[in-house]
Each structure stands twice: as C-alpha cells, then as structure tokens.
Amino acid sequence: MVKRYGALTAVDGLTLTARRGEVTAILGPNGAGKTTTIEVCEGYRAADAGTVRVLGLDPARDGTALLPRIGVMLQSGGIPPAVPVGEYLRLLSRFHMKPQDPAWLLDITGLTGSARTPYKRLSGGQQQRLSLAAALIGRPELVFLDEPTAGMDPQARHATWDLITQLRADGVSVILTTHFMEEAERLSDHVVIIDAGRTVADGTPATLTGSAGQLRFRAEPGLDTDSLLSALPAGSAAKESPAGHYLIEVPGGTVEPALLAAVTAWCAERAVLPSSLRIESRTLEDVFLELTGRELRQ
Amino acid sequence: MTFAPAPGAAPMSRMVAAQAALETRTLLRNGEQLTLTLIIPLLLLAAFSLEPLVSFGGGYTRIDFLTPGVIALAVMSTAFTSQAIATGFERRYGVLKRLGATPLSRTGLIAAKTTTVIAVELGQTVIILLVALGLGWSPNAAGAAIVVVPLLVLLGTAAFSGFALLLAGTLRAEATLAAANLIYVVLLGVGGVVFPLTKFPAGARSFLELLPTGALSTGLRDVLANAAVFPVRDVVTLAVWAVAGIALAARFFRWE
Is residue A179 part of a domain? Predict the structure, then answer.
C-alpha cells in the first residue's frame, strides 16, 4: 500500500496481513506511517496504490457494509466536549442493531461515576477509556485501537490490557498501534514493525526477539571487548554500548554456565567487579531499536 | 457479558433521530446558542414594538411590521449562525471525523442536522408568535399563508444551512465563529428585520431584497402583513440561494 500527502510519502509500499481472531500490533517510531495505515483501513482516505481489504471489503468503497462491523478508537478527540459520557455512549448505541449495554461498558472502563460528566472535564486517561468504550459499543468483529493506553495511569493500562485480552478470547480481532513494547509483547499474537512507511519486521513476538540469550553487566568504561570476546566460547558477541554498559549475546543460543564463568574469570583477572549482572533474552524493545535506530525522529 | 461480535447497523431513521436528539439537547444546553436563537429575537421584538425607536411607515403597526422580520431573524440565527458555529467546532474537535467511522452516513448526519434546525425553528416560531400575540400582533394574511409561510421558512432554512456548512467546512473554527457572527449582525441591520428596507435608497433596496435575509423578511411580511397570496420574487430568490449554498457546500465541505 502506498499513501502520499503532496510531496510526502507517508506509506511507501507497506505490506501487512492481520489474521482474524488475533491481536496484531503495529509498532514504529513517530511518523513511520502507523496512523495513516490504520486510517486507510478505516476508510478515512484512499490508498494511492496497492490493494487494501478489511474483512474482505475495500474500505474506500464499501464503507456502508464495513463500518457497522468495525470499532474505531482514534488517537485523540472525536467526542463532543460538552456531551456527558453516558449520553454519548447511548447515542452511539442507537447506531447499532445489537449494541452493548452502555452501562456495562461504563462499568468495565471505570467510568460509571463519570456518566454525567461532560467529556471535556474528564482526565486524559478517562477520555481514552471513553474512546475505547465507544469503539466497542457496536459489538464489532474487528477493532482498531490507535495508541489505546497513551496517557493512562498504570492501573488503567493494566485494566485495558485485561480488556484487550478478553476481546481476543471472545473472538474479536484487534489491530493496535503502540509505543509501549511491553504492551505489544504481552498482548499480541503478531507484531509488525514499520519504519518510513515500510514493513521492517513481521512475526510473533517470540520469533522477532529470537532465542538469543544475553548477558549484561555494568563496569568501568573502556574495557577491551576484543580481549573479552577471545575469552568467550565461539559464536558469542560482545560490545560496550553505551559507555560502561556491556552486552554479550549468543545469537541463536542461550547463556550457558560456562559463558558466565568465562566472563567473571576475565573480569577477575583484571580486578574488575561487574555490577548489575543480568542474564536475559532479547526484548522486543531491543529488536525495535536495532531495526529503527536510536536517532530521535523529527 | 461478552464481547462476542454481533455487528449490524441500526435503521437509518433511528440513527438520524438519535443524532438529532443529541444535537438539539446540546444546542439547548448551550447558553450562547440560546441567546442567539431566542433571547435576541425576543428582545428585539419587545424593544422595537414597545418603544417608537424606528418609524416603519407603510401603514403597519409596529408589532405587525416586526413579527415577520423577527421570524426571519430567528430562522437565520438557527440555520445559519448557530449551525455554522456548532459544525465548525465539531469539525475542529474531530467529532465529524469520529462520526465518519460509525454506521451513520454523511447523508444521515446532514438529515440529523436538518431535523435539529427545523425542530429548534418550530420552537422559536411558537414562542415568538405567542409573545407577538401578547404584544397585540394581528396578522393580515390570506388563507394560503398556512402553506406559503412554511415554504418561505424551509427555503430560507435550506439557503442558510448551505452557507453555514460552506463556512464551517472550509474555514478554521475561530474564523467561522467570527464570520458567522459578523454576517449575522450585518444582515440583522440590512435584512429588513427591524429596519424597513423602504428606508434605504432605491438601488440599495433592490439589492438588499435579493439577499437571503431580505427576501425572507420581505416575503414573510408580504404574506403576514399585506395578505399577499404568493410572493413569487422572494420565493424564487430564496430557492436560488438554497441551490447555490447547498451546491457550494457539497463541493467544498471538508470533513477534517
């Protein structure tokens, strides 16, 4: 799929398949094309090239058939500021044949006490929760959640994760974008990392993070990593990044006791005491930064 | 309870009724909108009919001259000014965008807005007519007025709505607010609402009678005070404005 805004190409030949019944997370730095991709799928704008099908329908042409079947949570706003929370959900419920009970949705999103509060007087996290409830009112088959937990406190974030897990369990397909790698790792069956409008990685969280074992420790900066590497079993990799943070990786393998012993022996020879020594596997965040770089985005 | 999917759009009529009910409630709760649509017309009606601030000429009593003009003003305030401002801010806050992702179609949304405007106009007209009757209004109308007055009001509503949506759908919300209020004040002054167009020089007068407010107030006054059966020129003028306004809005309105 390709989408241009004037001279700017926001989505540049992106390919993505989200399977029914799964939670698909779209990750990418700001400006990568996440929101544009989702908004093309929601029918807000037509792609300039390529083919887009959502539930087998063309969102740009078959909106009348598609819109009743999907739930949409925009990144921000879209709710009339002066309208009370409960009234807004009751309005949306009147647009559907078998809507959810608005009172139940208010309950599970923790908004029952705010039912008479106008949208503009809600906190940022409450506004997000109402927006989420609004996406679910029509019992959709597929929901698009654009940064669902942005601005939520930890309690609300965990409650939202539970809710998304429940959606999946009840047979709702979910496509979400997020900047929280932990969120994607916990919730999704399928992760798509995009950058500059293209797919750069695509797979389950486990396949993306791979089985690479990692050993990390902190010590004085400037240790000789080449010498360290030569002391380690073959197939390992060692680097210092940033200064004073050391990372030893075993691509395709795990950290064995012998590796740990070799590292500590090498340190002992040099009278170096490693601190914060941890053995772990690669996180989705490591993969994300590796693929999309560490530079700040404009 | 479960999230098990059971999608399906409600019938169009139910969606439109729900959206219109919400918009009407929102409008009635908004103090500024209510001032514009009800308080100002009633104040003008009372003030100009009780005190000889302006001499109207033409052999009318003050209240007989004012009532049709104030109805025209009420229609303009609801269909044009109030609708332009409300829609401009809905566009700014992404409300129109969010509705675009619901089963309510754009046609349905326009139908809901039209229903809201007509419901508010009915309420305004009833209150204005009751106050006018209390102030001694005695219409001099032919039987056809029962059809022609609603026709004039509907055509005026269509014209004002078209231009309201044209403003709201093309300008920033603040610019829409300023423009809609400015146009309201200007047309209140030169639209034959409280100041008779007969007081203007002949050339200006024939121009002002071709503006939507001038045509609506003149047409209503002909029917309600002069017992005219069918004010052809005013009906045609309003119909032309209506077609032009709706065509321009359809062409240039931007939802986001």
Answer: yes
From the list B5, B22, B98, the residue facing A74 with the nearest CB is: B98
pLDDT at B45: 93
User: What does pTM read for this prediction?
Assistant: 0.87
- The H or E element that residue A267 is part of is helix A257-269
- Which range is least confidently modeled, A35-49, A281-295, B235-249? A281-295
- A80 within a domain of the structure (yes/no): yes
Residue A19 DSSP SS3: coil
Within-domain flag for A176 = yes
Over the stretch A235-290, which tens digit does the pLDDT of each residue have? 888 889 888 999 998 877 778 888 899 999 999 999 999 999 988 877 888 889 88
- Looking at the structure of chain A, the number of domains it has is 2
Residues A185 and A217 in one domain: no
pLDDT at A297 over 80: no
Helices (H), chain B: 12-29, 31-34, 40-50, 62-76, 83-92, 95-99, 106-134, 145-168, 173-190, 202-208, 212-225, 232-252
Cβ B104–A95 below 8 Å, yes or no?
yes
Q: How many CA atoms lie within 13 A of B64 on its CB side?
A: 15
| Same domain for A232 and A132 | no
Residue in chain B nearest A41 by alpha carbon: B101
Residue-wise pLDDT tens digits, A200-231: 999 999 888 876 678 899 999 999 999 998 88
Contacts of A236 (CB under 8 A, 6+ apart): A229, A248, A249, A250, A259
A144 and A277 together in one domain: no
Question: Domain range holding A125?
Answer: 2-208
CA distance A94 to chain B (A): 6
